[in-house]
């Protein structure tokens, strides 16, 4: 007789492992299935984010940023360090150590919360049964009261640039054994810019090829234009309207052919990173009689409560609609576990923050000015530059600004956009404010510590109505 669980989660990424832990905390007998194994054949928990995504990329971004500071910024502070060199092996070792600590930490959390970890490839059968096939091909069927599909996503591959030794995806780009002299990146999105930044700081000449004619099209364009200027200054060669049509590997070099407004062009690079987006991992996940619906792009159909069309089967994270963000997946995991336990939890999709961990960082929540213009919704804007912020001056980090957009009639904050130092941390202030339905005046009346970078948020809120203290302002006029 098949073992039965109240909840079986397929996938142990930021959505899956969080859902499993929360379900167990709520008193539900819970199992989590994971197919990923290490060289020793043991289950690797944490999914893409912890193993080959968010965490290792941030480790390298931090290391490379410290190198950049040592090379070019320490002298401003009166610190002389002489010649600075890179030990790439040690840098990678540090990154791998962080990943190992976090992934083994999840195993410990599973144990302490009573989550059963099942190793193998999970497949949903009919009647909420889950078949798990191990590395040797042996299959076991489990029964579940509820199933949570949290299988995540994988890099999209494109025919003109097949993945291999010299052409890599985001995973391969985190494990180079030497710094490429010249590096090509296809895609100027979040992943492409972050990885391009890492290797540029470490010494690569980086060319980024972006097919779109707008840089960071989904970002508020006031910030996007500022970012493009800053990245160009840093040495990233970002080419828009550049559509890659072919690649050829010869003698350790990659010839990349692309078309732009001037016709056909080509560059030669030592390594090429393909970072054109990610797609859902749903292949072979569902048996024909599971009756769970997929859309035309392979995403699992799920409503705003992450329920599929089959009662008792939920889907969360990158394999469903919405932004492919680890924190979105985690919050969906919490919500689903609570709903299974009989609670009425929800996720507020209007207040999910986005971050690009470049330097300067870019972070935002809510609507952009372009979206508001297109909708015709009346709005007003306040901005404040870090160049006028005392803490930013002390930190030698004065690039960028804070932008707050509020509804013209109600003053309710509808969007906050930050480019600058610690933007990833400061955006949380905006998320909290919007979660509680704050007005720009609410933030303007809040006391912020001095001197802090966060004072820029305060001043931007004051600026919404033309009341900023530390910059000169023209009288505000309504914008629509």
TrEMBL record:
For this UniProt record, the keywords arranged alphabetically read as follows: Cytoplasm, Disulfide bond, FAD, Flavoprotein, NAD, Oxidoreductase, Redox-active center
Q: How is the cofactor bound?
A: Binds 1 FAD per subunit.
Record-listed E.C. numbers: 1.8.1.4
Known SUPFAM superfamilies for this protein?
FAD/NAD(P)-binding domain, FAD/NAD-linked reductases, dimerisation (C-terminal) domain
- Which InterPro entries does the UniProt record give? Class-I_Pyr_Nuc-Dis_Oxidored (IPR050151), FAD/NAD-bd_sf (IPR036188), FAD/NAD-binding_dom (IPR023753), FAD/NAD-linked_Rdtase_dimer_sf (IPR016156), Lipoamide_DH (IPR006258), Pyr_nuc-diS_OxRdtase (IPR001100), Pyr_nucl-diS_OxRdtase_dimer (IPR004099), Pyr_OxRdtase_I_AS (IPR012999)
Query: Which Pfam families does this UniProt record tie to the protein?
Result: Pyr_redox_2, Pyr_redox_dim
The segment(s) forming the FAD/NAD(P)-binding domain are 5-333
Q: Which reaction does it catalyse?
A: N(6)-[(R)-dihydrolipoyl]-L-lysyl-[protein] + NAD(+) = N(6)-[(R)-lipoyl]-L-lysyl-[protein] + NADH + H(+)
Which PROSITE patterns does the record match to this protein? PYRIDINE_REDOX_1
Q: Which positions fall inside the Pyridine nucleotide-disulphide oxidoreductase dimerisation domain?
A: 352-461
Primary place of residence? cytoplasm
Compartment(s) of residence: Cytoplasm
Its needed co-factors are: FAD
Question: Which miscellaneous remark does the UniProt record hold?
Answer: The active site is a redox-active disulfide bond.
Give the matching PANTHER family: DIHYDROLIPOYL DEHYDROGENASE, DISULFIDE OXIDOREDUCTASE
**Membership in a protein family:** Belongs to the class-I pyridine nucleotide-disulfide oxidoreductase family.
Put simply, this protein is called Dihydrolipoyl dehydrogenase
Q: What is the lineage of its organism?
A: Bacteria, Pseudomonadati, Pseudomonadota, Gammaproteobacteria, Oceanospirillales
